[in-house]
Amino acid sequence: MLVALLAPSAHAWTPLRAADETPLRWPAEAWPLALVDDDAPAWSRAAATWTQLGPAAFSPVAGGGAVSLERVAEAATWAARVGDPALVAFTLVEHAQGELRRADVLLNAARFRFADPPATRAFDLEAVLVHELGHALGLGHSCGPDAEAGCFDLESDDPRRAAVMAPQVAPGPGRRRPNDDDLTGLEAVAEGVTLRRPALRAVASDGRSAWTLVVDGLAPGDLVRARRGAVVAARITVEAGRARIESDAAPPLDVEVWTTAGQGLYAPGVLSVEGADEADAGADGCAAVPGGWIWLGAGMRVRRRRR
User: Fold this and answer.
1) Backbone dihedral angles phi then psi of residue 133, each to the nearest 5 degrees
2) Are 285 and 82 in contact (CB under 8 A)?
3) Tens digit of pLDDT for each residue in 124-178?
4) Distance between CA atoms of 57 and 34, rounded to whole angstroms?
5) How crowded is residue 121: how many other Cβ atoms within 10 Å of its Cβ?
6) Half-sphere exposure of 244 (CA within 13 A, CB side)
7) Most CB atoms within 10 A, among 60, 156, 194, 276?
């Protein structure tokens, strides 16, 4: 059953569509999609999940971008912009002549609680954002081309629910990693797009509170960030191929690298308390660093896509 459902001739993923059922996709020049930067670590992790697994995805920028996140705290505002108060999250998109122009991810904070890390009686913020960013990329729900009518009534054992683009969500930990069918969909909506990812080659530490990162593809003006939870390291200097990070926050720290010429990477816990000599990347595409191994990643408002 699972093999038949996810085979290329009967895939579960669907493209995002306009009200007249026209498939929508971003123009080639829009990739990587400019992601409006946000302080929420889950926003970056969700973007990096798609970026590091798929052929093309996001690159955050300061001050603007085609894809944004908004927490709607007032019920009246949610009703005016979205309508249905039972929706946990919502992605509004703009398009013209079949091409996507903008995507706004809205969280229904007026009625629901979101948590990062997950909590039993709250919705997993990162899982919700991975799903909604899938819509922003141009993916519909994982219902199959002929199953839209029953999309919101999938049984608990239906294999279509294994995808992050399944339409149901429940409080507590959620699905955060796109499966093969989700990624097949991304390959289809980004067909012909090839983007270069930055590659983290080495990390050196002074053994106290400063680190140097060696990153292929890094240029002055690119975004590098280190954090533990919501605490962001304040002193970061970016040069060609290198970044110097100083932080008073207790390690280990996660690192994000986002380049305007390509996409990005997210390296959890890569900045550790231990000192280390600069390490070369192995032939298998990983770099030995304190704290473990890091695998390197080689118009108008339209029909709404809901969670």
Assistant:
1) -70, -25
2) no
3) 999 999 999 999 999 998 887 655 556 666 677 777 778 899 888 889 888 889 9
4) 9
5) 8
6) 4
7) 60
Those residues with Cβ within 8 angstroms of residue 257's Cβ, 6 or more apart along the chain or in another chain: 198, 200, 213, 215, 218, 222, 223, 224, 243, 264, 265, 267
Longest dimension (CA), the chain: 60
* Orientation angle between helical segments 180-189 and 125-137, nearest 10 degrees: 30
The amino acid that residue 140 corresponds to is G
Domains along the chain with CATH numbers:
2-193 (3.40.390.10), 199-295 (2.60.40)
Cα end-to-end span (Å), the chain: 25
In the DSSP assignment, the letter for residue 172 is B
Q: What would the mean pLDDT of 91-115 be, rounded to a whole number?
A: 95
pLDDT in the model for residue 154:
67
Mean pLDDT of the chain: 80
Contact in structure between 256 and 225 (CB atoms under 8 Å): yes
How would residue 221 be classed by pLDDT, with cut points 50, 70 and 90?
confident
Asked which of 6-20, 51-65, 148-162, 269-283 is least confident by mean pLDDT, the reply is 269-283
Do residues 265 and 256 make contact, with C-beta atoms less than 8 angstroms apart? yes
Pairing of strands 242-246, 235-239: antiparallel
What's the CA gap between 126 and 134, in Å, rounded? 12
- The residue with tokens 């593809």 is 217
**57 contacts: CB under 8 Å, gap ≥ 6:** 32, 33, 47, 50, 51, 137, 186, 263
Q: Which residue has the tokens 């060696």?
A: 214
Is the dihedral angle over the CA atoms 121, 39, 37, 43 positive or is it negative? negative
Residue 21's CB is within 10 A of a number of other CB atoms, namely 9
In this structure, are residues 14 and 153 in contact, taking their beta carbons and an 8 Å threshold? no
- Give the residue among 88, 151, 129, 81 at the shortest CA–CA distance from 301: 81
